Amino acid sequence: MRQSRLFTKTRREAPADETAKNAQFLIRGGYVHKEMAGVYSYLPLGLSVIKKIEGIIREEMNAIGGTEMKTSILQNKEVWEKTNRWDDGVVDNWFKTKLKNGTDVGLSWTNEEAYSNILKQYINSYKDLPIYPYDFKEIFRNEARSKSGIMRGREFYWKALYSFSKNEAEHNVFYEKAKVAYQNIFERVGIGNSTYITLSSGGTFSKSSHEFQTLTEAGEDTIYVDEQQRIAINKEVYTDEAIESLGLKKDELIEKKAVEVGNIFNLGTKFSEPFDLKYKNEKGEFESVFMGCYGIGLGRLMGTIVEVFSDDKGIVWPESVAPFKFSLVEIPSEKPEVKEMSEKIYKKLGENNVLYDDRDARAGEKFADADLLGMPYQIIVSEKNVASGKLEFKNRKTGEVKMISESEIDNLLK
Ligand code: ATP
Ligand code: MG
């Protein structure tokens, strides 16, 4: 893409009320726009990152048998009354509104009830199970705190998968597969090394759950990490019993700040029984469906990647989620060869792989912008470079610069 065609511009300063590093850089880079505390719009570059993350999650969910669907955002009060989760005294973060005729509706803050209610129509026999539907969706929560930028939104985009199994044993098999799929996702988006599977509280759902916690000072959680075994325990459940159950030793565990990028729960029959979600087993008897849920916040994941990899100059995207693999920086010149060479490289690498800074701007401004925007590699075309027959090729992460010949450009896409 040509940067001259990008309507967003970089900014020197983030809004004064924005304290989170992830949002400061993303706003300055024109990736997101802050509508209000906890509410962000995704601009073209930001949406591109979200779509890349979404693509990776979709592949991993489909690989373990997931089937994508989309549940509505407006939710029916009666459905949520079945589990006693309509009441504001029970769930304190609903956004609710009314239809013209006075009927109450709520904006989805989670999906369990919606899924149980829909799937009830389609699950009758043991032959219908197991199934793993999921969706990507906007979620609305009237969160009390919103100081973590896009890592804690009042409106945010997530993936939630629900597993419907015949019994606990069948559930457990899928649960283990989901753990691996989650590890693959975090590995593929670049934060595998700093993400720990973490034993946590099951809240009102179950005895315990597993969270995927990424180490960062920007995290709101405290976890205790065993670096050797690559597992952790959330402070919420840091009791002797939990440590023993994992075979860990207290005096080697290290306290760290972390952010929950995803979590998986065993729901048992908590959301099938209220909906009378049952199937007929092989003997013709009715049994309750055994459920699990598996969430990931895409905005939170994107914010976490920014927190983990940025430096004092700006964002550093891992290749898998970068809007473009390359920034092509043309240093404006009177000599037509500079533009000619830039255009040639742009064509070679393709508009989907390169953000081509074709603007009429000072070199310093262009370098600062390329660093702020954080594409993994920068190719610099200047008068000097063109004359010498070698171009500067800079690795954004390491800062390492090497000189490459025009013919080597072809290998860069491999
Ligand atoms: P937290 O403990 O951080 O409040 P949660 O346990 O309430 O999150 P879930 O309801 O299980 O989260 O949601 C699933 C996933 O959605 C979380 O693992 C997280 O990645 C993401 N998520 C939750 N709340 C938010 C939010 N306010 N903004 C962005 N992402 C969120
Ligand atoms: Mg949680």
Mind explaining what this structure looks like?
The protein has 414 residues and is an alpha+beta fold. The protein has 2 domains: 3-311, 2-Layer Sandwich (BirA Bifunctional Protein, domain 2); 324-413, Anticodon-binding domain (Rossmann fold), CATH 3.40.50. The chain is built from 10 helices and 21 strands. The protein has helices at 21-28, 44-63, 77-81, 112-119, 168-188, 240-245, 298-309, 336-349, 363-373, 383-388, and strands at residues 32-36, 39-42, 67-68, 74-76, 95-98, 104-107, 133-140, 155-165, 195-201, 208-215, 221-226, 231-234, 254-268, 278-280, 286-288, 290-297, 326-330, 354-357, 377-381, 390-395, 401-405. Strand 14 and strand 15 form a beta hairpin. The longest helix has 21 residues, at 168-188. The model has no long low-confidence stretch (mean pLDDT 96). Bound molecules: adenosine-5'-triphosphate and magnesium ion (MG). Magnesium ion binds next to strand 13.
